[in-house]
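#lab-general

N.A. 3:47 PM
ok so I finally got the sequence cleaned up, no stray characters, all 418 residues accounted for. can someone with queue access submit it? mine expired

B.Y. 3:52 PM
send it over

N.A. 3:53 PM
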Amino acid sequence: MFKRARIAAKSAARRSTFARRVLAALLAVSLLPAAASSVEARDPLLAYGARIVGDDARTRIVIDFDREPRFSVHYIANPERIVVDLPATAFGFPAKDLAARGLFKDIRYGKMDEESARIVLTTAGPVKLALAKVQADETGNGHRLVLDAEMIDKKAFAELVKTQSWSDRTEAAQTTSAIPAPQKAAPGDFVIAVDAGHGGIDTGAIGVDTKTEEKQVTLAFAKALTDRLNKEPGIKAFLTREDDEFLSLSQRVLIARQNHAGLFISLHADTLKQKDIRGATVYTISDKASDKLAADLAERENLSDQIAGKETVAEPPEVADILLDLTRRETQAFSISLAESVLNSFKDQVGTINNPHRHAGFRVLQAPDVPSILLEIGFLSNADDEKLLLDEAWRGKIAGLLTDAVKRYRAAVMANGG
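B.Y. 4:20 PM
back already:
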């Protein structure tokens, strides 16, 4: 009798612990920005707990879900990564619970689109999953995904990559039907693509004080700017992404081009090691970076696809040269003109860094027929900048100044017969 009572008590305690963990995770998810609400409405899986153990020979990852998850595993080379695809999932556990260790040097997870999520495990070398399975929780509540990784040699990893059958279905978003379009654009309207940097699994930079993710900051700015631009007669602006969704760099360019955008403005709020540096910067494309800061920033931004577990497809050098040459000959002068107009608007109104117009090889600016700029609104690594970036009134001010810059740019283009 006492034995049955002890078993019942332990079972109740386990159920209570499970309930508390799920409740805590639900509360954490409920505090996410409103941009995630569209995902929650689709009743995603809830990943409420995670843990990682092991060393540089073998590492285990366990993730707790509120119900049984369907999943698939794929391998990507250059660099070596393991991609775990899931249905729509809300990740409600603290990031520190799945911090990289052992065989993994970086772990990312998050939304890909309305129906899918992804975990990307960047490995320290060739690795395979010796075990990848879903188990029911011993209490009968929920399920757990167990991933056991072990070292293998390069030849074995290359064979894994070669023999798998995988078509990244998230690339289907590149089809014309999936591309957002400006509302009520009339013939002769000046169409502008406003690109909120990062999104979904790619969080971007993290605020030094509030730990706010860059993807939230850029989306809030993009919405404010789009709303302000659309108040101007003859201007129609649209967002490349409207919520917390991942878009590859090539998708962003494609969206602008297929909507016949006359301008492409990509918004970012990065971090720097030098936390005293603050202010806005405007970047245009160039095959040679203006300085090390620009080169380093371009290198980080160009890693967005890699972070999300996209295959790195190297373009033939002659193709890349042609694209960059087209960009230079057809649109670079217009991009520089827009950059100068933006900085003229910011003068005496918004702080900028030294030499605020810089250039580097940003892949997101490579549309050969769309004048494009990348605007670093400020740096989340600087506490003063971070406060401004999170201030709605300040966002409105910047949106107004950028709108003035666009209007002057458009007037100049029209005056020259553009």
